[in-house]
Amino acid sequence: MADAPQPLVFDTKFQPTADAPAQILPGVARITANNPSPFTFTGTNSFLIGADTVAVLDPGPDDARHRKALLDAIGVRRLEAIILTHTHKDHSAGARALRAVTGAPLWFAGPHRLSRPRRLFELNALAGGCDWRLTPDRVLADGERFWAGGLPLIAHATPGHCANHMSFGLEGSEWLFTGDHIMGWNSTLVSVPDGSMADYLSSLSKVIALPYRHYLPAHGGPIDDGPAYARALLSHRRLRNSQILDAVRSGARSVDQLATRVYPLLKGSLRFAARLTLKAHIEYLEAEGLLHVDRGLFGTQLSLA
Ligand SMILES: [Zn+2]
């Protein structure tokens, strides 16, 4: 059956040399920042796009060595724009200093915002990682075509990981810069209210329908068959939804009990991330009318709707 999803297999073999440019295709070079972590994998990929003039996509963290690597790779060429996939600091924190040094304008979808209003007393676990005060010199709209480094790009709004997330297609090619929306090394973190599972799932479907075959994520290596991988991500999330409903059906009442049943082997920061993703699934299932969620002072009580 042609449409059957492939199993979700993560590619963790990527081993970049930090701050060393790698030519990916004509007019596109990748420079990985030296900020590896359980959340950033081998670090944030900055992309240099163009030939005679260039644009930087995701300048990465505010790190002097990474900035020097970007400036060395730009050389004497004019930096036309600094473009962001989204305003999490591992992508955007280096933008201010790069803008100050080069005078290049900053283009992205608009200031950081939540996917929905915060509930009373609700904690945003990602608040410290968001670049709240960064504003664009030019706001990019969904579907907008623009030139960057002499190459034609299209902005595609792909909210879910966070509300202002965009992917960028290299028009007339098979390549899509997917930021943190789709990465080959792991499924992305979706944490409410910064992100939204419903948005993430529709952004996956949206990207699958676009005419791009190869994806260039902001962490990890390229994804050769992007749409097949995105379909696997989509069915992975659907499977997670039914696992959650099954766990509640068999007695899990709290997020902790769910985490123990759905992710029995995870420890430490990965278990923390898994709990955040579970909360995003719970909210999605609640909005779908499949789960009843009672948010009390002493935690969340789950039952089937
Ligand atoms: Zn990131």
Task: Give your account of this protein's structure.
By secondary structure, the chain is α/β, with parallel strands linked by helices. The protein is built from seven helices and 14 strands. The chain has helices at 64-74, 89-92, 95-102, 197-208, 226-249, 255-262, 268-287; strands at residues 22-25, 28-32, 45-50, 53-57, 78-83, 106-108, 138-139, 145-148, 151-157, 166-170, 175-179, 214-217, 291-296, 299-304. The chain has a seven-stranded mixed beta sheet, covered by helices on one side. The longest helix is centred in the last third of the chain and has 24 residues, at 226-249. It is globular. It starts with 21 loop residues before the first strand and ends with a strand. The mean pLDDT is 94. The site of zinc ion has 8 residues, from helix 2.
Lay out the secondary structure.
Layout: E1 22-25, E2 28-32, E3 45-50, E4 53-57, H1 64-74, E5 78-83, H2 89-92, H3 95-102, E6 106-108, E7 138-139, E8 145-148, E9 151-157, E10 166-170, E11 175-179, H4 197-208, E12 214-217, H5 226-249, H6 255-262, H7 268-287, E13 291-296, E14 299-304
Helix pairs in contact: 4-5, 5-7, 6-7
This protein binds zinc ion (ZN).
Offer a concise description of the structure.
29% of the residues lie in helices and 22% in strands. It is α/β, with parallel strands linked by helices. The model has no long low-confidence stretch (mean pLDDT 94).
